[in-house]
Amino acid sequence: MRILVVEDEPTLSMQLCEALRGAGHAVDLADNGRDALYLGEVEPFDAVVLDLGLPVVDGITILKKWRMAGKSMPVLILTARDMWHEKVAGIDAGADDYLTKPFHMEELLARVRALLRRAHGHASPELRCGDVVLDPRNARVSAGGKQVALTSHEYRVLEFLMHHVGKVISRAELTEHIYAQDFDRDSNTIEVFIARLRKKLPPDYIETVRGLGYRLAAPER
């Protein structure tokens, strides 16, 4: 999944990006409100981690403008200790959750996982499609009870498909959601990742819908 981190403190922003990438996500970073506002308007993020105290444009203004523009990606806001009014203002502006600084990185990762689950209508912490199970907390995949070894990009493709079981997903959409903005994107490599996944998963789980894209679904037995 693709996450936007909006944080102007260099050490914290680096820690956030490293933790989210380590959890299997593609991560973009903005260190000021102007860039964050633009990226959120033009790029399809699956979630945003948004600090409220930003240079140029503050986080509340950014969030309000995103929501007014119809942007519905889940947003986790970061607030300063004891700034309860920031939490209220953030929630009223359209935030989905908040975290008070300082925080443990594991808690942030857990909250991001929860936001992604809720955004796609999943109640369980694990994603399931037939015999295939994806555990976002540990970035592990199993099929028929046996662990499946995946590269980082194979994992991102499968996770996105698992969040959209039964839906047709185009190559372009997959490309937009598994790569960060500064990555050299090539939609043709999606075919390579799909081919590798088909070899590693049970037969017939990933269907090619000619001219449209791919659909993940458990085959009828």
From TrEMBL:
Residues 124-218 bind DNA. GO terms for cellular component: cytosol; protein-DNA complex. InterPro entries: CheY-like_superfamily (IPR011006), OmpR/PhoB-type_DNA-bd (IPR001867), Sig_transdc_resp-reg_C-effctor (IPR016032), Sig_transdc_resp-reg_receiver (IPR001789), WalR-like (IPR039420), WH-like_DNA-bd_sf (IPR036388). Residues 124-218 form the OmpR/PhoB-type domain. CDD domains: REC_OmpR_EcPhoP-like, trans_reg_C. Gene3D superfamilies: 3.40.50.2300, 6.10.250.690, Winged helix-like DNA-binding domain superfamily/Winged helix DNA-binding domain (1.10.10.10). PROSITE patterns: OMPR_PHOB (PS51755), RESPONSE_REGULATORY (PS50110). Residues 2-116 form the Response regulatory domain. SMART domains: REC (SM00448), Trans_reg_C (SM00862). The keyword Transcription applies. Pfam families: Response_reg, Trans_reg_C. GO terms for molecular function: phosphorelay response regulator activity; transcription cis-regulatory region binding. GO terms for biological process: regulation of DNA-templated transcription. The keyword Transmembrane does not apply. The modification 4-aspartylphosphate is found at D51. Keywords: DNA-binding, Phosphoprotein, Transcription, Transcription regulation, Two-component regulatory system. PANTHER family: REGULATOR OF RPOS (PTHR48111), RESPONSE REGULATOR PROTEIN CARR (PTHR48111:SF37). This is Response regulator transcription factor. It comes from Parapusillimonas granuli.
